[in-house]
Sequence to fold (260 residues):
Amino acid sequence: MENHDKLDESRPAGFTARLWNVASVRSLKAPFACATIVSIGVREMPASAFTFKFDEDTVYVPENFQEYHRTFYALGRFYEEDLLRHIRQLERAGTYVDVGGGVGNHSVFFARFCKARRVHTFEPNKKLHPYVDALASANGVRDRIKLHPFGLSGAEKMGEATFILREQGDNITATVPLRRMDDVIAEDDVAVIKIDVEGAEPRVLRGATNVMERCRPVLFVEALSDRKRDKIMSIVGPLGYAMTGRVFRPSPCYEIAFAG
Fold:
């Protein structure tokens, strides 16, 4: 099994341990050598922004962006960049689906650096929506990202969702509207689906069987335990899907592809 949790030797010693400790994240403040301040137009956000380079391209990040992700950007990389680079290398054209879109890190990457014609972003935590809007607008891809203010599950109903509060280092559970992906996604060209919803991944997949059968997208699904991973495979395996052997860290995210 390919493992993508190898430490980047170019990072300072102890970098990974510090970065995943929320209290330590707070202590990582500007200035950073790899971050630059520029003036750009961002809708409803201050004009001053961080920039960093992704390969040869400049990525723009609003200065008052969410603190946890801003720390990664100020260090010159996307959050979960190893996963994102792999998805980019697949060169799959079509519609991308980001379930658990958070602040828009993955969605903006898909819209700007992958062959995504459109991105469906599902994020029921409305407090994060201004970050998605700002990050997408700053990078010129807001028109290709459809932000859905509800969660996904195996049935249309009101249900509980768990939100991670990065700055407080805590989780909260709230009641939010839930829908089935099969009832929302009408496109026939779904190429990639990424799901990271704090343990609710099997329920999301149960409501997406028609999309998977119709489009056969590559799946990138978080599973925090072997039991959860096996539950996921019990849903997608009968549809012809198999694990590729690639798993991305820090939280295990498995690549699952149609195998016939």
User: Anything to note?
Assistant: The chain has a mean pLDDT of 82.
